[in-house]
């Protein structure tokens, strides 16, 4: 497994996203992923599956110290005391003394960012999390968060796949020493029949999904594909035995288009 290093964190470059996974399915998939060699699990308060993720971690037999666990604070917990309480509740559901990374899930313009960043940093100082970061933050918001945070930030987790150009966010993360973590890295499955990805995959005996994930990893981006199918878990992790050429990397980047974003909400920031 490769790692993306940022401000003291070593984030495994391939992880498992758990959005929309719940109950026994979530526990089964996470446990199987850990048995297959995944060492990076991403959950969130709003996913309502932290309990199952914690159960799966214990059932897998993998040492806790070997797994990078991320959770995310939902936007209605951004007031300082509320943030701290909600992180403690996340730990209680996970039945863990700390997580590796706590992120602000989405920006919230209704709570001053200075207050939220102070509370997030305090959660780290209290030992509730080893690292802190943000998710769905634009260039301007990343700059603001870095300036306001008393502790170093290690990542911005954003939607990123071949159909969405994230060059601006990647650039600010590079400048500030943050990692980029990509959710929806295979564009919610839309890449399956993409002729460019099929063709490149054929040359390497890989699937379009594997090509996508490899494209991200070669940019020093951590990818967290979500799947509920165990056979897909095996496929997604088999990306460390081939390399894309510069020409292939460019062809994949050329698939981006202005309507490539798949995750957008009314409360989302004004995207770059």
Give me the secondary-structure topology.
Layout: E1 3-6, E2 9-12, E3 16-17, H1 23-36, E4 40-42, H2 50-60, E5 68-73, H3 80-94, E6 99-104, H4 113-125, E7 129-135, H5 139-148, E8 153-159, H6 167-176, E9 179-183, H7 195-204, H8 208-217, E10 222-223, H9 230-237, H10 246-253
Parallel strand pairs: 3-4, 4-5, 5-6, 6-7, 7-8, 8-9, 9-10
Antiparallel strand pairs: 1-2
Structural overview:
This protein is α/β, with parallel strands linked by helices and 272 residues long. The protein has one domain: NADP-dependent oxidoreductase domain (TIM Barrel, Alpha-Beta Barrel). 40% of the residues lie in helices and 17% in strands. The chain has helices at 23-36, 50-60, 80-94, 113-125, 139-148, 167-176, 195-204, 208-217, 230-237, 246-253, and strands at residues 3-6, 9-12, 16-17, 40-42, 68-73, 99-104, 129-135, 153-159, 179-183, 222-223. It has an 8-stranded parallel sheet. Strands 1-2 form a two-stranded antiparallel ribbon. Strand 1 (3-6) and strand 2 (9-12) form a beta hairpin. Helix 1 runs parallel beside helix 2. It is globular and about 55 Å long. The mean pLDDT is 97.
Give short descriptive properties of this protein.
272 residues; alpha/beta; TIM Barrel; two-stranded antiparallel ribbon; 10 helices; 17% strand; globular
């Amino acid at each position: 497994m490769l790692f993306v290093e940022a401000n003291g964190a070593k984030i495994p470059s391939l992880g498992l996203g758990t959005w929309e996974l719940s109950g026994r399915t979530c526990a089964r998939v996470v446990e199987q992923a850990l048995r297959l060699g995944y060492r990076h699990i991403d959950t969130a308060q709003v996913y309502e599956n932290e309990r199952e993720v914690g159960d799966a971690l214990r059932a897998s037999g993998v040492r806790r110290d070997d797994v990078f666990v991320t959770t995310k604070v939902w936007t209605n917990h951004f007031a300082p005391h509320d943030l701290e309480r909600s992180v403690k509740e996340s730990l209680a559901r996970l039945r863990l003394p700390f997580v590796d990374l706590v992120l602000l899930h989405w920006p919230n313009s209704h709570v001053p960012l200075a207050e939220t960043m102070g509370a997030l940093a305090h959660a780290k100082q209290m030992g509730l999390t080893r690292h802190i970061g943000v998710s769905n933050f634009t260039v301007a918001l990343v700059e603001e968060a870095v300036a306001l945070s008393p502790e170093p930030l290690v990542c911005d987790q954003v939607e990123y796949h071949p159909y969405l150009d994230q060059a601006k966010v990647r650039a600010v993360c590079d400048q500030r020493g943050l990692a980029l973590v990509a959710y929806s890295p295979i564009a919610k499955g839309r890449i399956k029949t993409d002729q460019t990805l099929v063709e490149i995959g054929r040359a390497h005996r890989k699937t379009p999904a594997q090509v996508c994930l490899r494209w991200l990893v070669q940019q020093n981006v951590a990818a967290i594909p979500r799947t509920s199918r165990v056979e897909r878990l095996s496929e997604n992790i088999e990306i460390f035995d081939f390399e894309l050429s510069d020409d292939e990397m460019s062809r994949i980047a050329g698939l981006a288009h202005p309507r490539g974003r798949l995750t957008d909400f009314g409360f989302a920031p004004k995207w770059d």
